[in-house]
Amino acid sequence: MAEGFFERVYEVVKNVPRGKVTTYGDVARLCGNPRMARQVGWALHTNPQPGVIPCHRVVFANGSVCTGFAFGGKDVQRAMLRAEGVEVSDDYKVDLKKYRWEI
Questions:
Q1: Between residues 83 and 2, the one the model is more confident about
Q2: DSSP summary character for residue 21
Q3: Segment 57-86 mean pLDDT
Q4: pLDDT at 70
Q5: What one-character DSSP code corresponds to residue 34?
Q6: 48: exposed, middle or buried (C-beta count within 10 Å: 0-12, 13-18, 19+)?
Q7: Which 3 state secondary structure label does DSSP give 46?
Q8: What is the CATH number of the domain that holds 87?
Q9: DSSP letters spanning 50-65
Q10: pLDDT given at position 3
Q11: In a domain? residue 66
Q12: How confident is residue 30, by pLDDT bands cut at 50, 70 and 90?
C-alpha cells in the first residue's frame, strides 16, 4: 500500500509549478488520504528522483520550510525556493496566501 501511496505523492508533487508551494496536508488530500500528511513527508524524504520530483516546494501548514530537509537542510530549501521567486522570510516561512498552489 505504501508504494502506491508514495507513487501518488510523487505524481502530485511533480505538478506543483515553479514559484508555488503546497503543504503536506494538501498533497495528502490530493492523494485521497487527507489524514496522511506525515506519510507524505516520509515519501518525500525518500524521494527517488531529486530534481525531478520538486519536494522543496512542499512546506508545513503554517508555511514553514522543513527543518530537516532531506537534501541539505532548511537553508538549502529556502535557497531553492528563493531561486524560483518564492519569498521565504528570515524565520523560514512562506506566505501561503501569496504562494500556495491553488488546485
A1: 83
A2: B
A3: 91
A4: 67
A5: T
A6: exposed
A7: coil
A8: 1.10.10.10
A9: BTTB-GGGEE-TTSBP
A10: 67
A11: yes
A12: very high
Answer positive or negative: Cα dihedral of 54, 78, 39, 60. negative
Q: Active-site residues: which are they?
A: 55
- CA dihedral for 45, 51, 53, 54, sign (positive or negative): positive
- Overall number of domains in the chain: 1
DSSP assignments along 63-100, one per residue: SBPPTT-TTT-HHHHHHHHHHTT--B-TTSBB-HHHHB
Whether residue 103 is contained in a domain is answered as no
What Å distances lie between residue 33 and 13, 24, 42, 76, 95, CA to CA? Answer: 15, 11, 14, 29, 25
Kindly report the length of the chain. 103
pTM: 0.93
Closest by Cα among 81, 95, 97, 89 to 17: 81
- Is the separation of the CB atoms in 54 and 19 below 8 Å? no
